[in-house]
Amino acid sequence: MQKLPRSFYLRPTLQVAKDLLGKYLVRAYRGRKLICKIVEVEAYRKDDPASHSFHGKTKRTEVMFGEGGYLYVYFTYGMHFCANVVTGRGGRGEAVLIRAVEPVEGVKVMRKNRGIGATEKMGDWEKNLTNGPAKLCQAFAIGREGNGTDLLGDEIFIVDGDKLPTSMIGRSSRIGIRNGVEKQWRFFVKGSKWVSRKS
DNA sequence: TGGACGATCCCCT
DNA sequence: GGGGATCGTCCAT
Asked: Which of A55, A132, A148, A193 maximizes the CB count within 10 A of its CB?
């Protein structure tokens, strides 16, 4: 499968968001490859009160204001990291938050990274692995040092996958924000058990 | 220099 | 379904 080219990320943010569904996020980790299919995303745009870039460029949001195709990782709630794909030609401060993914390869390692032990109650541990933005960062061992990673490099990248029919793509308000809730900029794969919540 | 707040998660009820 | 954990970032003193 082909690594997505820079041009993929330079397109309009909402388009990139929708097209990321069904693509594969790959992480080179200690000589292995961790692979997950993207099943839920949110778009954050310029002039969007919910976006970190809304109040202008700061040290924290510097990567967001760069060229598309780089990873913007931020720290929140004193304990969690979330990963975004920067979009556009640069200077706009737009990105797509990866909210949930479906494990494909490296489940054992991801499980270890998430701290889900062998004796853990089995119930829904598989779903619990990556059904949220901070969970997938933990499973992929993506932290502060992942901020600014070039997605055309070999550490973290995205490869082509299924082209999903429109009928399989759900749309809703974004989760966990106060301003901009009226915008329907969350996209997800209908029926996937890894989608972070019903809506 | 301090305080309010957050694109979340987990555990408890 | 609700609240506590926990700390970096940003803006106001």
From this structure: A132
